[in-house]
Design brief:
With about 500 residues, the protein is mostly beta strands. Helices cover about 10% and strands about 40% of the residues. Bound molecules: CU-O-CU linkage (C2O) and copper (II) ion (2 copies).
């Protein structure tokens, strides 16, 4: 725990002066951007490309290295993200996004991660129902030069998961460097649906980054090699360049048919409100933890960090030749745009969006055997001058357990966000949001809370016993200790 002490000392010292600056930057910018996302905008000094000039990359699907076995190497690589410049990334197999893992429900796989980075790393399968020793607990590091086998039973419905770094105190900078990839679980229920597939089923990982003049990612660490983001970015790092699958404001040619997109917000802190221009509805078919009971049409789609939206866009509503921009209503300047589709040709389409997608057993409050309340708020500055982010007033410690749900039970948790928005993610236990204003969200693992917002969630604790974390998925908040442990007993 030496690093933790160090972080407390450095954070404490720095934030003595910075805590007022922090509240100003998190809420007072006056533009859309800082009202909708907790964070401070970091501007690139590199020349950014014209939007919609770089083609959308599709991450490669990882080939198994044996029956139900996969090998991934985490390493640094130099890649061209901005045309004409090189960016050093840290990537799974040296790519950003990492390779997509495709698995089947109930078919256990083992993924061996080798760490060829110069720093410790932890891998978490976000949204996975995973035994505790393979869940990527923040202190279960793979040392440089080491490797670790993660066992994933994947006994859960088809959905879009993602894997990413989860190293204590360093998740923000390490994910920012590129340590994130998709993991898709498929099953028979989904296979039986007439949804678009093959080349018309595309994962979209949305992130924001700032680039230094030489093309490198700019992440504002307080001190090189030490934990902690610079104090003015304590509320979150917002980049000014939007990347989709690692490419700046890319463009994708489509046919005038339906496409299925698995949207993931893998940004450290930025929230998006996605809308098509010219507008057509975005039809949601799935959420974090799988298919919805029935499709839901959205004119615009708010997406908080770590949330996934499985959606259908029907490009036959547009004329061939039409350019369709995926915009971000929460953005300003360059961050108003995400990517562009060009309807390049007509096409035949036998896909449909059925009225019924999956059976979802609704949980009811009467099933909850325990109620708990967790408030996510800024903590301090204390008399030591220390400010962190906290859950119920407590900064994260690996030794403190705040809840001990019993295996096989349902609990009601009231989650409350103070000061700024907090996207709250709970490991292991999928939940349903019971708030009447938020219907039809299906099974989730991350809930988007606006500042002052409260949500009640019904969690089902099944699968495995052991110690897991829940936390804010604004990665700067997470690194600055907005995280807590529960133990399933
Ligand atoms: Cu996506 Cu605890 O993480
Ligand atoms: Cu997770
Ligand atoms: Cu937060």
């Amino acid at each position: 725990m030496r690093r933790r002490k160090l972080l407390q000392a450095t954070v404490g010292g720095l934030l003595l002066g910075a805590s007022s600056g922090c509240s100003a930057s998190s809420g007072g910018g006056g533009n859309n951007e800082t009202e909708s996302s907790a964070g401070t905008l970091l501007r690139s000094t590199a020349k950014l490309p014209e939007p919609f000039t770089v083609p959308l990359p599709i991450p490669a699907v990882l080939r198994p290295s044996g029956t139900d076995r996969y090998d991934v190497t985490q390493r640094a690589a130099k890649v061209e993200i901005l045309p004409g410049l090189t960016t050093e990334i840290w990537g799974y197999d040296g790519t950003f996004p990492g390779p997509t893992i495709e698995s089947r429900r109930g078919r256990q796989i083992v993924v061996r991660h080798r760490n060829e980075l110069a720093v410790p790393a932890v891998v978490h399968l976000h949204g996975g129902r995973t035994p505790a020793d393979s869940d990527g607990y923040p202190t279960d590091v793979i040392k440089p030069g080491g490797s670790r086998d993660y066992t994933y039973p994947l006994d859960q419905a088809a959905t879009t998961l993602w894997y990413h770094d989860h190293t204590m105190d360093y998740t923000g900078p390490q994910v920012y460097k590129g340590l994130a990839g998709f993991h898709l679980i498929r099953d028979d229920v989904e296979d039986a649906l007439p949804l678009p597939r093959g080349k018309r089923e595309i994962p979209l990982m949305i992130t924001d980054r700032a680039f230094a003049e030489d093309g490198s990612f700019h992440y504002p660490m307080m001190m090189e090699g030490m934990p902690g983001v610079a104090g003015e970015y304590m509320s979150g790092v917002l980049g000014d360049c939007i990347l989709v699958n690692g490419a700046p404001w890319p463009v994708l040619e489509v046919s005038a048919t339906r496409y299925r997109f698995r949207i993931l917000n893998a940004s450290n802190a930025r929230r998006y409100k996605l809308k098509l221009d010219p507008p057509t509805p975005i039809v949601q078919i799935g959420s974090d933890q799988g298919l919805l009971a029935a499709p839901v049409e959205h004119d615009d789609l708010p997406v908080a960090p770590a949330e996934r939206f499985d959606v259908i866009i029907d490009f036959s509503r547009y004329a061939v030749g039409q350019q369709v921009t995926l915009t971000n209503r929460f953005g300003s300047g360059g961050t108003k745009n995400v990517m562009r589709f060009v309807v390049a040709r007509s096409g035949s389409d036998d896909s449909r969006v059925p009225d019924r997608l999956a059976e979802i057993e609704p949980l009811s409050r009467s099933q909850a055997v325990v109620q708990r309340q967790f408030t996510f708020e800024r903590n301090g500055p204390s008399h030591h001058g220390m400010t962190t982010w906290a859950v119920n007033g407590q900064a994260f410690s690996p030794d403190t357990i705040v809840a001990e749900p019993a295996l096989g039970t349902v609990e009601l948790w009231k989650l409350r966000a103070q000061n700024v928005p907090h996207p709250i993610h709970i490991h292991l236990a999928p939940f349903q949001v019971v708030d009447p204003g938020r219907t039809a969200t299906g099974w989730k693992d991350t809930v988007d809370l606006a500042s002052g917002d409260e949500a009640e969630v019904l969690l089902r604790f099944d699968g495995y016993r052991g110690k897991y974390v829940f936390h804010c998925h604004n990665l700067e908040h997470e690194d600055m200790m907005m995280m807590a442990n529960f133990r399933v007993r």
